[in-house]
Amino acid sequence: MTAQMVLTIGRDALSLLLMISMPVLAAVLAVGLIVSIFQAVTQIHEATLAFVPKLIAAMAVLALAGPWMLGLLVDFIRRTIESIPSMIG
């Protein structure tokens, strides 16, 4: 196993992590921005008003994109495990 192989696997893992986390982070960011604007306009500063919509948005995105995320993870793990013999030998 060369240093190039390790760097390639690490790069692929980090890009996969970014691709999988991006939908959840984007949804939570958008909901947080909307709630913050609502709180600024109405001058209601309740902590649960900021937390609960973000939690609901994250759960909704995970419910909708969860199978896609899991498929990407399974494919990456399968490719990594299948490439172990070529890395060792």
UniProtKB/TrEMBL annotation:
Sequence similarity: Belongs to the FliQ/MopD/SpaQ family.
Keywords: Bacterial flagellum, Cell membrane, Cell projection, Cilium, Flagellum, Membrane, Transmembrane, Transmembrane helix
Role description: Role in flagellar biosynthesis.
One GO term describing the cellular component: plasma membrane
Lineage: Bacteria, Pseudomonadati, Pseudomonadota, Betaproteobacteria, Burkholderiales
Protein name: Flagellar biosynthetic protein FliQ
Membrane topology label: Multi-pass membrane protein
Gene Ontology biological process terms from the UniProt entry: bacterial-type flagellum assembly; protein secretion
NCBIfam families membership: fliQ
Listed InterPro entries: Bac_export_3, FliQ
Pfam family name, one: Bac_export_3
Presence of the UniProt keyword Magnesium in the record: no
Compartments where found: Cell membrane; Bacterial flagellum basal body
Transmembrane segments: 12-35, 55-77
